[in-house]
Write a structure and sequence with these properties.
The protein is α/β, with parallel strands linked by helices and 320 residues long. Helix content is 41%, strand content 16%. It has 12 helices and 14 strands. The chain has helices at residues 15-26, 38-48, 64-71, 91-109, 129-144, 164-173, 192-204, 222-232, 244-254, 264-269, 294-299, 313-319, and strands at 6-10, 30-35, 54-58, 76-79, 114-118, 149-153, 156-157, 177-179, 186-187, 190-191, 210-214, 220-221, 239-241, 281-282. The strands form 4 sheets. The chain has an 8-stranded parallel β-sheet with strand order 3-2-1-4-5-6-11-14, with helices on both faces. A two-stranded parallel ribbon has the order 7-10. Strands 8-13 form a two-stranded parallel sheet. Helix 2 (38-48) links the parallel strand 2 (30-35) and strand 3. It is globular, with a radius of gyration of 20 Å. The model has no long low-confidence stretch (mean pLDDT 90).
Length: 320
C-alpha cells in the first residue's frame, strides 16, 4: 500500500530519527530527511530505510526560504532537533525556541496536515536555560500551529544514545560513582523504538492538537538505573552521594570540555523527576504502549563495556 503523505524530518540522523525513518519507510511513507552533511550521514540513513522511500536534503542554516521550499514538498513535518550542551551563548534558545517557532510558522503558512514537535519531559518547574528554552519553544509552536502535537519523552535510550552509553563509559573507568541528589531523581526511560512507534501512530491515526507525555513501562530512581547498568557490565562500584556544592564545582569545570560528562544545567535538571505530570495524556492513555524493559534492552549492547566484550564469560556461557 502506498501512503500519499510525505514526511519531512528535521533531526533525522539522531537517536530517534534513524529508528523513525526505518518505521515510516518500511510502511511505504515517503520521507525527506534533513541533514547538515549528506556525505557523512547519507550512508547511515540509507541503510536504515526501505529502498526508494527516502530522500535526503542538506541544510546548513535555518534559512526560511530553504525550509519553505522543503515544506512545499511535504504534508507532515516532524522536528526532532535538540541539544544537551550549549556550545555558545544562546544556543539553547536558537535550537529549542527560535527554530521550532520558524518551523511551526512556515508549517501553518503551508497548511500542513500535521506538525509534530519533540520536546522533553519534566521541565515545567526547572529554572535553567535548557528547560526554559524548551518550554518557550512548546508555547510558540502551539501559538503558531494550533493543530500541532507536542511530544514530551522521558530519557530515550538505545545503543546510540547519550545517556546509558555515557554512564556505561563512566562506570567502566571510574573507581566510584557519584550520586547527585542522593540518586533519588525518578525516570521513566523509554526505548528509542517505542518512541518511534509513538510518533508513527500519531501520524497514522492523524492525531492533532495534543500534548503527549511519552514514557516507558517502568519507573526507576537514578540510583536504581546505575545499579542496573553495573549489573549489565558485571561490575561493582561504590555509589557515593556528594554535596551539591562540590557537584556544582565539578560541573563548572567539566562543562568547559568539548563533550562534557555533566554541565551545571544538567545538574540542576536532576533535581526534578522525569515522570508523567498528570497534566497531559501519556502514550498509554492513547493506547500506544511502550513495552520494552530497560534491563533487558541495555543487556543487548552492554557487552561493549564488559571485560572481554562480546566474548565475556557471561556471554559465552549463555551461548554455549
Amino acid at each position: 500500500m502506498i501512503n500519499q503523505d510525505s514526511i519531512l524530518i528535521f533531526g533525522a540522523t539522531g537517536n530517534i530519527g534513524k529508528s523513525l525513518i526505518n518505521r515510516f519507510t518500511q510502511n511505504n511513507y515517503k520521507v525527506i530527511a534533513v541533514t547538515r552533511n549528506i556525505h557523512r550521514n547519507g550512508h547511515v540513513l540509507r541503510t536504515t530505510s526501505n529502498y526508494g522511500w527516502l530522500e535526503m536534503e542538506e541544510i546548513n542554516s535555518f534559512s526560511p526560504e530553504k525550509i519553505s521550499s522543503l515544506m512545499s514538498r511535504c504534508s507532515i513535518c516532524i522536528n526532532l532537533i535538540g541539544i544537551l550542551n550549549e556550545k555558545k551563548k544562546d544556543h539553547f534558545k536558537i535550537v529549542h525556541t527560535d527554530f521550532p517557532f520558524l518551523l511551526s510558522k512556515i508549517a501553518e503558512e503551508k497548511n500542513l496536515k500535521q506538525f509534530i514537535h519533540v520536546s522533553a519531559l519534566g521541565i515545567e518547574n526547572a529554572k535553567v536555560d535548557y528547560a526554559i528554552s524548551k518550554i518557550n519553544g512548546e508555547n510558540l509552536v502551539k501559538k503558531n500551529f494550533d493543530r500541532c502535537v507536542i511530544l514530551k519523552p522521558s530519557i530515550c535510550y538505545s545503543s546510540s544514545d547519550q545517556f546509558t552509553t555515557k554512564l556505561f563509559s563512566l562506570l567502566n573507568f571510574l573507581p566510584i560513582m557519584p550520586l547527585y541528589y542522593e540518586g533519588k531523581t525518578k525516570f521513566t526511560p523509554i526505548h528509542v523504538s517505542d518512541m518511534a512507534e509513538i510518533i508513527y501512530q500519531v501520524v497514522r491515526r492523524k492525531i492533532i492538537g495534543e500534548t503527549i507525555e511519552c514514557i516507558g513501562p517502568e519507573v526507576f530512581s537514578f540510583k536504581e538505573i546505575i545499579l542496573k547498568l553495573l549489573k549489565a557490565i558485571d561490575k561493582k562500584r561504590p555509589l557515593i552521594p556528594i554535596p551539591l556544592s562540590i557537584a556544582k564545582l565539578v560541573a563548572t569545570v567539566l562543562e568547559k570540555f568539548p563533550k562534557p560528562l555533566i554541565t551545571k544545567s544538567q545538574l540542576n535538571l536532576l533535581q526534578y523527576d522525569n515522570v508523567k505530570s498528570g497534566k497531559y495524556k501519556t502514550n498509554f492513555n492513547l493506547g500506544i504502549e511502550a513495552n520494552k524493559k530497560f534491563e533487558e534492552e541495555i543487556e543487548k549492547y552492554s557487552f561493549n563495556w564488559k571485560t572481554g566484550g562480546q566474548f565475556s564469560k557471561k556471554n559465552l556461557s549463555q551461548n554455549s
